[in-house]
Structure formats: structure tokens, C-alpha cells
Specification:
Length: 452
């Protein structure tokens, strides 16, 4: 098997996936392709891969290059975890709109930040897919880069390559709800669907019984209202166990659950960017909410980088199990998907794929986030039918503008980029929106060659 990782210099992704591959004997003798335009980061991760191969006796053939065409040939699996412009561009996605009064806790999917990132990332993903058409046409592209829905839809629209978007969000939401109730996830089942960073848990069951009444009481308890929770705990069923480590309350998600009858995820920071008009009452301190995600990156990544340096250049021990679990995010899902296919396990994962009858009341062909079973025959998405009517407008509104965003990115069209943003709920006036989009594009022209 040949696995190519594009954006291999990512310390949040590649070390963990290589550790996972290194601890699995199925990948003995595999070819690992590493691509990154940052030569220092690429050199570091290449040394890391070589140590894993040597010390765990995996006999990998490691290919590394700053040019993807050097390593794509013959690939079976290709992943993208890129960040065009890196943290500098992401800061612009956040800081420029903030000057215009737009608050974004993440800024990677919706709003002006999501638009700017889409303009940078969509052409690169389509170019990768077109190289794959020539060099490895049978390979599957697993995309981890945000905005995940837009990138995945662009590749499926503009190439013959099958592109699947992966995000751990649905699993994080499911885990969160289990912690609210105080139940082990293995005791539950859930129906989850929607679009990336705004999926909805439409059903949650414990041993087949509806768990939403327990969830409602548990959410009340997080807010200090314990009457219903105490009553349920005193009942004969003994459900609603008091969680030993209560999760952080998500006020917006909780309020939407109470009004819509389905629970959104993966947390207020992402969901708020689909409902910015509902965000303001939740912000106690704007400075703490604005850019919260990038602050987490600033705080956590230096330690990960140091760990990579220590392992790759200073001979520190490779604790692969710890590294594989340290960032148990999307990479673990990819590894499990590959194993479920190879071993014909039929396990279920949440994936982002073009809608082909999976969700009846969202547009056909638009990329949606749905569960799918994976076995030796491939990926088999579930048919969820209709999503509850109250949650459809926000999803349909977002999906309706995706093709316009993709056209703006591929054509380098400011006009279409502005049109797309004028349809975004973050826009706060025609002239203000026009100025904001132009300022974002002008500040990032070095990453937007089609707009030059």
C-alpha cells in the first residue's frame, strides 16, 4: 500500500497518523509519501517516519518532496491536511473581519474567515485531484482541510477523483452528550446528520430507549437547574448518572436543542458561525470568544513541535502509542476506516460525501455529513431520510452558496466572492461586506494567484 500525506508538516496530524501506522503490522513494507512546501517541517517529519520504520521494523519506503507530483504516482490513499498561508493567513481571516465588527471564534468554515480560507484552499485541492487523475486515478482522496465541505465538494465537482471529507466532530458531539448524561457511549446509539461543523443529533438512545428526556435534564443541571435531574435519579430506572467530570456547557447548542428538538455540534464555537445572529447574548467577553481556536493552536503547537524535534533530531524515545493517542482526532478515524475496509469489519463512521439520497430534504449532490458503513466492498452511506424541518433552513442556506464560492475561487472572481458573502448571515450591509471581502483578498494576494 502507498499512502501519500499532503501537508505532511502538520504537527497536529502527521506524527499521530504515522504513529498509528507504525503500531499496526498491516503496514509493514508500505510506501509513505510525504509532501510539504515547508522544507524544514518536511525534513523533520521525514526523519520521524524513518525512525518509526527502522525502530519498529516496518521496512517503509519513505518518499519526501516539496512537489507532490514527485510522490503521487501509484498512491492508493492520499490525504490533505494543508493550510495555505499557514497561521499568518488564518490571523488575517480573523483580524480583518473583527475590525469590521465581525466576531469569529474559529473562522474556518462560515463567515468571512471561511470564505477567505475557501478561496485559498479550493484551487489547490482541485489541482491535487487533477494530478491524481494522471498519476494515481484509482486512489481515494481523504480531505481534512477546512472549509471541509467546500473543499470536498469542489474536488467532487471538478475532477473524477473520489474525495471523502473526514472530521471527528460528530464523535465529539456524541461523546459530549454521553458525558452530560453520565453514560458510556457503548450503551448508546445515535442518529447524526447534517453538514460539517453543523451536524445534528436527531436521535439518542440508551439500550434502545429514547435518551432525550435524560439529556434535557442533564443540560438543565449543567446550568444549575437540578430538579428534573434529581427526580430522574430517584426513579426506578436509575438513569442520569451524575458524571464524575461534567463537560463544559454549550449554551447555544443547548438552546437550539430546546427549540428545535435536535442537538447540534460540534460545540458553540462552530455552530455559532452558522447562527451569528444568535451569538451575541452568549458572549460575556468578546476578546475571549474572538479567535478562541487560533489561541489554542498558539498555546498547544509549540510543545508538539518541540516533541517532534526531540524525537527526530535529539534521539528522544518514540512513544508511539502516546503520540497516536495524544491528538485522537481525524487521523484515528482514517486509520480505522482503512482497517475496516481491509478486514471487512463493516464498522460505521461519519463521512462527508456528495448527497445521493442520504438526506432527502437537502440538495442532491451537495456534500453532507452522514454515517456510512465501511467493508471490503467500499463505503456504504446510510439513508437518513428527512432531517427535522426546523434545522433544514440553516443547512440549506449554507449549501446553496457553495457552488458560487467554488466558482469564485476557481475563476478568481471578486464579484462572485462578494455575491457569496452577501448571502452569508455574517454580512452587515452591502457596502461594508464589499469592503471587507476586498480587504481580505487584497491582504492575501500572495496566496491567491487567481485573483492577481
Amino acid at each position: 500500500m502507498k499512502i501519500v500525506i499532503i501537508g505532511a508538516g502538520s504537527v497536529a496530524f502527521t506524527p499521530a497518523i504515522l504513529s498509528g501506522l507504525g503500531t499496526d503490522p498491516r503496514y509493514r513494507g508500505a510506501t509513505i509519501g510525504l509532501v510539504d512546501i515547508d522544507e524544514a517541517a518536511l525534513g523533520l517529519i521525514t526523519s520521524f517516519a524513518a525512525r518509526i520504520s527502522r525502530e519498529l521494523q516496518r521496512d517503509w519506503h519513505v518518499e519526501a518532496s516539496t512537489r507532490r507530483r514527485d510522490v503521487l504516482g501509484g498512491a492508493d490513499v492520499v490525504t490533505t491536511s494543508i493550510g495555505v498561508g499557514g497561521l499568518s493567513a488564518w490571523r488575517l481571516d480573523l483580524d480583518i473581519p473583527f475590525k469590521h465588527g465581525i466576531v469569529q471564534p474559529v473562522g474556518d468554515t462560515s463567515g468571512p474567515g471561511g470564505l477567505a480560507r475557501a478561496l485559498r484552499h479550493i484551487p489547490v485541492h482541485v489541482e491535487i485531484a487533477r494530478d491524481m487523475e494522471e498519476l494515481c486515478p484509482e486512489a481515494t482522496l481523504y480531505n481534512f482541510s477546512n472549509p471541509l465541505t467546500a473543499n470536498t465538494q469542489a474536488v467532487n465537482r471538478h475532477s473524477r477523483i473520489r474525495c471523502i471529507g473526514l472530521c471527528i466532530g460528530p464523535d465529539l458531539t456524541w461523546d459530549h452528550l454521553c458525558r452530560v448524561i453520565g453514560v458510556e457511549r457503548r450503551e448508546t446509539s445515535a442518529a447524526i446528520g447534517g453538514i460539517n461543523h453543523c451536524h445534528w443529533v436527531t436521535e439518542l438512545r440508551i439500550h434502545g430507549e429514547d435518551a432525550f428526556p435524560l439529556l434535557s435534564a442533564g443540560l438543565d443541571e449543567l446550568e444549575g437547574k437540578t430538579a428534573e435531574a434529581d427526580k430522574l435519579r430517584a426513579g426506578p430506572a436509575g438513569f442520569l448518572r451524575r458524571p464524575p467530570d461534567p463537560p463544559k456547557a454549550q449554551p447555544l447548542c443547548t438552546q437550539l436543542f430546546r427549540h428545535f428538538g435536535a442537538y447540534p455540534g460540534p460545540g458553540d464555537n462552530h455552530v455559532a458561525e452558522f447562527f451569528p445572529h444568535l451569538m451575541t447574548p452568549l458572549i460575556k467577553k468578546v476578546e475571549a470568544y474572538q479567535g478562541e481556536a487560533i489561541r489554542y493552536v498558539d498555546e498547544s503547537y509549540p510543545a508538539l513541535w518541540k516533541k517532534m524535534v526531540d524525537i527526530s533530531q535529539k534521539g528522544a524515545p518514540i512513544d508511539t502509542e502516546a503520540f497516536a493517542k495524544e491528538l485522537a482526532w481525524e487521523h484515528t478515524q482514517l486509520l480505522d476506516i482503512l482497517v475496516s475496509g481491509m478486514d471487512d469489519l463493516g464498522q460505521v463512521f461519519h463521512v462527508n460525501i456528495p448527497n445521493r439520497g442520504c438526506i432527502h430534504n437537502l440538495p442532491d449532490g451537495a456534500v453532507v455529513e452522514v454515517p456510512a458503513r465501511v467493508d471490503r466492498a467500499g463505503l456504504h452511506p446510510f439513508a437518513l431520510g428527512d432531517l427535522p424541518a426546523p434545522i433544514v433552513p440553516a443547512l440549506a442556506h449554507k449549501l446553496a452558496s457553495l457552488d458560487l464560492i467554488i466558482e469564485a475561487a476557481m475563476e478568481g472572481s471578486r464579484k462572485k466572492a462578494i455575491q457569496a458573502y452577501l448571502n452569508d448571515p455574517h454580512a452587515n450591509g452591502v457596502e461594508a461586506a464589499t469592503r471587507l471581502v476586498n480587504e481580505l483578498i487584497d491582504s492575501q494576494l500572495q496566496y491567491l494567484p487567481r485573483f492577481a
